[in-house]
Design a protein that fits this description.
The chain is mostly beta strands. The protein has a domain of about 55 residues. The protein is about 10% helix and about 15% strand. It has a 3-stranded antiparallel sheet with strand order 2-1-3, with no helix packed on it. It is elongated, with a radius of gyration of 25 Å.
Length: about 90
């Protein structure tokens, strides 16, 4: 079995509109999509398909930032109010 790069399930891409690009390409700028959902170039609604110079920019992740749960994982800073007690009579002594 050959080991390679791990498959990235949420790999993303965005369309980079070239100078003088059509309105369809301009509407997709700064919009990251899953790689499987990015439309092929030239776009179907492109009014200059013969001279289209638009490109893709690929990313390992579709998101622009890391998940919020990582950013806010600072923990609870209040006093610990949980009490460890068991179910047996000897645990309450």
């Amino acid at each position: 079995m050959v080991e390679g790069k791990p498959r990235l399930n949420y790999r993303g891409a965005e369309v980079i509109a070239a100078e003088g690009a059509c309105d369809a390409a301009l509407s997709l700028t700064n919009l990251r999509l899953l790689s499987a959902e990015v439309p092929p170039l030239p776009l179907k609604t492109c009014d200059r398909p013969a001279t289209c110079k638009c490109k893709y920019r690929h990313f390992d992740d579709r998101r622009r930032k890391f998940p919020r749960r990582v950013e806010h994982a600072t923990g609870y800073r209040g006093a610990e109010r949980r009490v460890r007690r068991g179910r047996r009579d000897g645990d309450f002594a």
